[in-house]
Amino acid sequence: MHSRGRLSQLGQGLVLLSVGAAGALAGHALGLTAGVIVGALVASGIYRLLGGEPGPWRGRYGKAGRLLLGTVIGAAFGPDVLAPLQAALVPMLGLIVVIVALGLLLGLALSHFASLDDTTAIMSAMPGGLPAMTAMSENMDADSTVVAASHFSRLTTILFVIPVLIPLLPGLAAETVVVAVPGESVGLASSLIILALGVSGGLLALRVGIPTGDLVGPILVVGGANLLGADFGPMPAGFRHAAMLLIGTAVGTQVSRDSLRKLRQVIVPAAAMIATLIGTGLLLGWGLSKITPLDTVTALLCAVPGGASTMPIIAHELGGDFRIVAALQLARQLVMLVIIPPALAYLFRAQQQKRFVAPKP
Q1: Which tens digits make up the pLDDT trace of 193-212?
Q2: Which of 47, 166, 229, 237 could form a disulfide with 19 if both were Cys (CB 3.0 to 4.6 A apart)?
Q3: pLDDT category, 80, cuts 50, 70, 90?
Q4: Number of folded domains in the chain?
Q5: Are 55 and 184 in contact (CB under 8 A)?
Q6: Does 9 fall in a domain?
Q7: What percent helix, strand, coil does the chain show, rounded to 5?
């Protein structure tokens, strides 16, 4: 019976991966920007809505995709990335403060207009990555279904809208496309060695409890080795496409009939929240491009709150520097994962104290 269950589980994984791969191929064939991840997301989402069961493969594919993407990003790092990162660091810290504060305000507004409890509303509005925010909401007794549906809606909106919108923005058509990662790709043998190093770093980061360690670990280990002169990478494009397939497939399975039903109850305020976050991100990104050496595409994608596992992919497709986008998106995400739990605890403790303090006569 145990072996039969494992075979059934393996069959679930193969079916889900086949569905995601078919969608990825269709998205790529249609010439969509980031078509691999978009196609995989749409196909696996439809599969889920039609009753398909992902089993444990949602988490496994997501983790594998982030480990692979982190390794690809780390392998592309070099000394040339340090100067623009240093130049953008202080403005980006200010941008993080504004985006996190906006997320908190939008969450409080969402709790009022959508009749959600404060924790669920704030976790739905905070601009973090979908997997991380969903997991955090479960640990904080929020309605993780609503949180997942809200972040899924924001992420899919960004994936569909941003690649179309950014090239249409005034002045971008005249900009020279940035070649983010110069140099030829390494061979298969070297790529496998790099991948083993990156996966080891990611698993170690997860083991010691680093937030989003499956993405952070490979970037730190492989990218750090490159900065010290190891000269790893860049890796062949097939590895990036595989990461896009796995991440898109995992994200698509986050949608369900139950999550859509709950999202429908808050659709108007949630749509306004998403539009505000994206619009503010674009505005802040434009400002970032004016006060730092970053090109406009890179600056915009650093600021739009789409998550560290998706915005670098869009950046690469649009000609931005996906290494810088990954670094600054990760910085924002890590700050949020560290700050949000104590901030929410303080906020709710203050509210409880107000309730129990008797009014003065």
Answers
A1: 999 999 999 999 999 987 77
A2: 47
A3: confident
A4: 1
A5: no
A6: no
A7: 75, 0, 25
359 inside domain = no
* Token couple for 308: 């560290």
Q: State the pLDDT at residue 175.
A: 55
By C-alpha distance, which of 294, 229, 231 is closest to 86?
Answer: 294
Is 212 in contact with 66 (CB distance < 8 Å)? yes
In a domain, 246, yes or no: yes
CA-based radius of gyration for the chain: 20
pLDDT for 30 beyond 70: yes
Give the number of other CB atoms < 10 A from CB of residue 231: 12
Q: At what angle do helices 267-291 and 257-265 cross, to 10 degrees?
A: 90
Distances (CA, A) of 68 to 8, 42, 314: 26, 21, 16
- Pairwise CA distance, residues 124 & 144, whole Å: 9
CA dihedral sign of residues 117, 121, 123, 126: negative
87 class by beta-carbon count within 10 Å (0-12 exposed, 13-18 middle, 19+ buried) = middle
Alpha-carbon gap, residue 189 to 350, rounded angstroms: 57
Q: What are phi and psi of 31, to 5 degrees?
A: 75, 25
CA-based diameter of the chain, in Å? 78
User: Is 1 within the bounds of a domain?
Assistant: no
| Alpha carbons within 13 A on the beta-carbon side of 14 | 6
CA distance 48 to 70: 27
Answer for the pair 210, 321: CB distance below 8 angstroms, yes or no. no
Q: Which of 144, 136, 159 lies closest to 38, judged by CA?
A: 159
pLDDT of 344 reads: 64
Q: Which of 325, 324, 328, 330 is nearest to 80 (CA)?
A: 324
Structural contact between residues 177 and 273, judged by C-beta atoms closer than 8 angstroms:
no
**Nearest Cα to Cα of residue 250 among 10, 9, 4, 19:** 19
Report residue 37 as tokens: 């991840």
Structure tokens at 198: 């990156």
Q: Contact, 314 vs 305, CB < 8 A?
A: no
CA-based torsion, 352, 355, 356, 359: positive or negative:
positive
Calpha distance 314→167 (Å, rounded):
12
